[in-house]
Amino acid sequence: MAPTEAARSQYEERFPGNTSTLKDTDPELVDYFGNFAFDEVLRHSRLDAPTRLMVQLAAMIACQAVQEYRVMLGVALRVGVTPVQVKELVYQAVPYVGMAKVFDFLHATNEVLTEHGIALPLPGQSATTPETRLEEGLRVQKAVIGADRVEGLYAAAAADELHIQGFLSDNCFGDTYTRTGVDLRTRELLTFAMLVSLGGCDPQVKGHIAANVRVGNDRERLIDVVTQLLPYIGYPRTLNALADINEITDPPAKPSQTGGHRGDGGSPGVA
User: Fold this and answer.
1) Within a domain: residue 38?
2) Model confidence over 81-136: pLDDT tens digits?
3) Could you tell me if residue 146 is inside a domain?
4) Nearest 5°: phi and psi at 23?
């Protein structure tokens, strides 16, 4: 299978002057994956290039794909993702993926930024203090999740678990979501991308699908994100994400014709 013109163009734009070493050892895979990821999948996207690269980088952190992350980080910087945005998506991964998994990506990020001549540390983006983090975190948490839902979580928590709800408010939202450098709508897309890519997080995925809709990311945009993650996270997690989207949002009426790329309501295919 020869690369399509669109795939060749995208590859050259992403990796100017570079020829993959896999072209010599695995030419068939390189060609059909390239046609899929850099042509067919991109034809189904309305995301701007920086947003598309940011959600893909977030997914790669969740998948622990540090080598691919390094390569794609260089691409992201070339298409306009700022160093501050890069650092913010890595910082946001800490409460969702865990520092144990993010640690190597933080060092990889610092190395790539340094290689691009970017001085570290970057300007601080923290917007809270130890005195305000809980209040501000609750404010943002309620804006994203919904005040009734947040109050319900506190009310339902057992006495010996209540501190975890407090951590969600002051640490996850107060320390992270209030930060500047990335707007709230994009932060929710990043969280969605990480949770989908982790796998086994369907309750949280559904919660953040609803949160995304609340902050302005509709069904079409969420499906766009999942489509752009597909080449990197595989079909099982992609199909699970689509089932969650179908459960939380209203799918359009199914086309009458058979065949083609389509799924079935709450069970969008089997892989």
Assistant:
1) no
2) 999 999 999 999 999 999 999 999 999 999 999 999 999 999 999 999 999 999 99
3) yes
4) -60, -30
- Burial class, 149, CB count within 10 angstroms (exposed 0-12 / middle 13-18 / buried 19+): middle
pLDDT at position 254: 79
What is the reported pLDDT for 242? 98
Number of structural domains in the chain: 1
In whole angstroms, give the CA distance from residue 31 to residue 193: 26
CA 60 – CA 70 distance, rounded (Å): 10
- What is the tens place of the pLDDT at every residue in 27-64? 999 999 999 999 999 999 999 999 999 999 999 999 99
Let me know if residue 165 belongs to a domain: yes
Share of the chain above pLDDT 70, in %: 94
* 179 CB neighbour count, 10 Å cutoff: 19
Helix spans in the chain (H): 5-14, 22-25, 27-35, 49-62, 66-78, 83-97, 99-115, 133-145, 147-156, 162-167, 184-198, 202-215, 219-233, 235-248
Q: Determine contact, residues 233/37, Cβ cutoff 8 Å.
A: no
Q: Residue 143: give the domain boundaries.
A: 129-177
User: At residue 83, what is the residue type?
Assistant: P
What are φ and ψ of residue 265, in 5° steps?
A: 35, -110
Q: Cα–Cα distance between 37 and 3 in angstroms, integer?
A: 11
Largest CA-CA distance found in the chain, in angstroms, rounded? 62
Taking the C-alpha atoms of residue 144 and residue 137, their distance in angstroms, rounded to an integer, is 11
Measure the CA–CA gap between 104 and 212, rounded to whole angstroms.
Answer: 28
Separation between Cα atoms, residue 72 and residue 135, nearest integer Å = 37
The amino acid occupying position 58 is: A
- Which run of H or E residues covers position 76? helix 66-78
Lowest mean pLDDT among 7-21, 44-58, 154-168, 252-266: 252-266
Q: Is residue 143 part of a domain?
A: yes
